[in-house]
Each structure stands twice: as C-alpha cells, then as structure tokens.
Specification:
Distance between the termini: 41 Å
Shape: globular
Number of helices: 8
Strand content: 25-35%
Radius of gyration: 18 Å
Strand order of the largest sheet: 2-1-3-4-5-6-7-8
C-alpha cells in the first residue's frame, strides 16, 4: 500500500465519505416501498458525501482547486493542482439497492492525472495509485490482466441509457464486438469498471460521453497497473473528449481496431 502524505489524505477523505454512504445505503431498501421513492434521499446522500470530500481535501491541501460532479468547479490559489471528484459513481445502482457503486477522487497536475483513489464502501475495496508508485487494492499490488486475445477477454462497456445519446452508435459497436470476445459486461459504474481493469478482473473497457470525475482516478490506476489508456481516437485527451478505452497494450489496441469498424 502507498503511504505517501498525498495518498493518506485521499484515503482518509474517501473512507469518511464512504461511512456516510454506507449509512444512507442502509435506508434505501426501506425507501423503495414508499410512494415517493428514494430518489430525493439518494440525491442528498450524494451531496453529503461530496461535502465531506471537499471539506477533508480542502483542509489538507487548502490551495488546490476542485472539479466536482455536484458543485462544479472551485478555483484554488494553486493553479496547477485540482481534485476531480465523483462522490457517488453508480447512483442508479445505489437508488435501486444494488451494492455496486464507488467514490472516485483523482488529483490532476497541469491537467494530467497523477494520483487516484476509488473506493467501494460496501465491499470495503480501496484502490489507490500514485504516479511512479504502482497501483494497489487494499494491501495488494495489482496488475492488468495478461490475456492477449480478444477471444479470451471479458470486456466491460458503458451502455447508453435514457436521456443520453449514442444508442445507435453503441448498437453498431456491440454488433461488431460481441462475436469477437468471451463476454461483455456493464456494471453501471465507470469508476468501478476502470478499477476492475486495473485489478485484472476485466480485460478491457470502453465508454463514451463520460465526465472527468468518472475517469481521472481510474486513468492513474490503470497506468500504474501496467495498462494503457487512451481516448477513442487513440490520443491522450480522455478528460477533454469524454471517451475512453483501456486494457493491456494488446487488448486496448485490438479492441480499438474492432470498434473502429463500427
């Protein structure tokens, strides 16, 4: 496990926010049966977790700026460093009582992610990475999977849902890729998907129309786990373009080649 001051600060913040989410998640099942439903409650849980993260990180690094899903951008006196935060990635899962969601906190220096923490508080799985220091799941060093054939690979993807475009394009991509891989999966949490690629659970991942807070921490994790990450134009502009593809060197390359046929 990485013990640097930076990672220590990030871990303390996500664990505190995670305790809040676990308490709120315990109420979701009860709220499911109410006429009003749990939607407003979950929105409050999301905002509360973000407040905790903002307070903890601002206290530890008062000059750093923020990019947050709920509160937007907050400038700091240090123009080169920004926290990129998703307090609850997998909100729909949370809303339905599905225990698959994560807190994602990345730190970017001059626009380049240099540290990341992704935490599933239900499973108590803590993924951490810092540039040059490797990637870890709890106390264990992690590496991307070593498979090199798409036919052996389980690939995760983001599937467009109501209110988001891209359904036709995804349909074409699914049609060309599904016959080429061992399996396709969708978890509903991009941060989790990226963490699981870093840990070797998934061999590859791609998704479009993401936000920086969905990807920043996961980009560091995968690279420090020996993997490769790019946008779908094979460049390094994931945070700006909002699309991403990841895996080991061979799987990412071959996955990108198949998707381009769509």
């Amino acid at each position: 496990m990485i013990r640097s001051p930076l990672i220590t600060v990030m871990v303390q913040a996500v664990r505190k926010a995670g305790r809040s989410l676990v308490r709120d998640f315990g109420e979701v099942e009860n709220l499911q049966v109410s006429l009003k439903g749990p939607a407003n409650f979950v929105s409050n849980a999301d905002r509360k977790a973000e407040r905790i993260l903002h307070e903890e990180l601002a206290k530890a690094r008062p000059g750093f700026g923020f990019i947050m899903e709920e509160s937007g951008e907050v400038d700091g006196t240090d123009d080169s460093h920004r926290w990129i935060i998703d307090p609850l990635d997998g909100t729909t899962n949370f809303l339905h009582g599905i225990p698959l969601f994560a807190i994602s906190v990345g730190l970017a220096r001059d626009g380049v992610p240099i540290a990341g923490v992704i935490y599933n508080p239900i499973a108590d799985e803590l993924y951490v990475a810092e540039k040059g220091a490797g990637a870890f799941l709890n106390e264990r060093r992690i590496r991307v999977a070593a498979r090199t054939r798409l036919a052996d690979a389980v690939v995760c993807c983001g599937m467009p849902h109501m209110g988001r475009g891209g359904t036709d394009q995804f349909g074409r991509e699914y049609a060309v890729l599904a016959p080429s891989v061992a399996g396709l999966r969708r978890t509903g949490s991009a941060a989790t998907d990226l963490a699981w690629v870093a840990a070797g659970r998934f061999d590859g991942f791609w998704e479009r129309n993401l936000s920086p807070w969905d990807m920043a921490a996961g980009i560091v994790l995968i690279r420090e786990a020996g993997g490769y990450v790019s946008d779908l134009d094979d460049s390094d502009k994931m945070l700006a373009k909002g699309d991403i593809i990841a895996g080991n060197e061979t799987i990412r390359r071959d996955l990108l080649a198949v998707l381009r046929k769509a």
